[in-house]
Amino acid sequence: MSTMTREETEALIAEVLEVYPDKAKKDRTKHLAANDVSVEQSKKCITSNRKSLPGVMTIRGCAYAGSKGVVWGPIKDMIHISHGPVGCGQYSRAGRRNYYVGTTGVDTFGTMNFTSDFQEKDIVFGGDKKLAKLIEEIEQLFPLHKGISVQSECPIGLIGDDIESVSKKASAAIEKPVIPVRCEGFRGVSQSLGHHIANDAIRDWVLDKRDGVTADSTPYDVAIIGDYNIGGDAWATRILLEEMGLRVVAQWSGDGTIAEMMNTPKVKLNLLHCYRSMNYISRHMEEKYGIPYLEYNFFGPTKIIESCRKIAAFFDDTVKEKTEAMIAHYQPMMDAIVAKYKPRLQGKKVMLYVGGLRPRHVIGAYEDLGMEVIGTGYEFAHNDDYDRTIKEMGDATLLYDDVTGFELEEFVKRLKPDMVGSGIKEKYIFQKMGIPLRQMHSWDYSGPYHGYDGFAIFARDMDIALSNPTFKNLVPPWKKVEAEDVKKAA
Amino acid sequence: MANIMIRQGEKGLTFYLPKRDLEASIESIEFDSPEKWGGELKLDNGGSYYIDPIAKPPRLPISLRAKRLGAAED
């Protein structure tokens, strides 16, 4: 059903790579591929999770971004100290729209920036004293916080500060958890390692703190893992799960609290949305506490129904009945949305380039609207993500891993999609090229996109982007006249 | 020696190497009986690892120490 044959896709890749020097070309070839649905093992067609080439533009982030920005940041009742120079924290502050309920600055701290603001003297003499003082001040100024995490920036690892010992001492003094996270930005090739480090910190410092303490539980307890509540996503998810008769005990980590996290080992099933960033903790809980985990997908009605039935299969008949009732209840609403937008969006082509999960998860939602995804790629996915992607994508479609600015631009120029789904860094380039773009990281300041409620918004947003009259007026009037004259003359 | 985790997947056993974030399915396991379980693991990505044979674990996943046989695979 793809518009290009395998040979054409391969020729396109070769053509785009033509400008690189031989060595770079050899390296980049491994990261670009035409999808082959018959392949079971992604490593046979695409290489991922490798260091980006020096000299090309990459969109990747760092380990600190993965830990502080993604995993730890949304935990709302903790204070996350950006330990190091001020910039890392300040320029990433409140950018990810992890919505939460609470009074910021009193009992929740999601959008605030706490930093130790390293100066030259701290680099020379070490910043441990400053960190200890900072924690003391936090305790005094924000007594309602439930814990502190120390998110290291690059210099901490370089100068060898012992944040673990400071954290242990401070934790004993304030009688709240203080968690050192060794997520210095230079670690790893992308933010992906930051997720792993953050997960390991949760495992070592948070998860086992309430082992042996009994909490009231029901047989229907579940935890939402890897939903960061961007634009309210986790809430839209939660509504559905509760309608299915499940009890959501914890949200990791959008709108989540540290108490919820400590209670998670008592749930019956972990529901894993962002596999890339939180599979580590799910694997750990499966081994240590025997809690199975289940990957699910709440983008678009087809995938929602599939996922809900898969989740319900873990529970008894009452949940299954409620699930079917819920699906039946929402079906007319979904039919109405599809009836409204499908005629407008049918056959439109989309190219995606997002982080570690959405390049495959949103395909179903686009297909529900009759759109076709002709190219997809991840910033920081690993082989296991591509294993899962190959099955979702059509044969001979384009796959790109850690695509460079140049390559993505060229691919878009040649494939001419009707729309691109990517991030802020790509947005204005493509809009100036005359192609509508929706940010698939932050939902372009809209959202939620998860769940049934989210699909309505998703469909509307895609229609807004594609039907925007601006893109018909990219040629200024004086040039338009000329073009018409030429046509007349000819 | 590396820490690995063996898990029951949908289609069979899967192998996970946390250090390298490597997930692969296990194509064959040398010993697979209640008393003796382990030995050489052949992975579908071409790699093979060796775990000391143990009694079959009552519950998966399980973390074990494994030795890599042959060259590192991608």
UniProtKB/TrEMBL annotation, chain B:
InterPro entries tied to this protein: NifT, NifT/FixU_barrel-like_dom_sf
Domain of life (superkingdom): Bacteria
GO annotation, biological process: nitrogen fixation
Pfam families (alphabetical): NifT
Protein name: Nitrogen fixation protein NifT
Biological source species: Azonexus fungiphilus
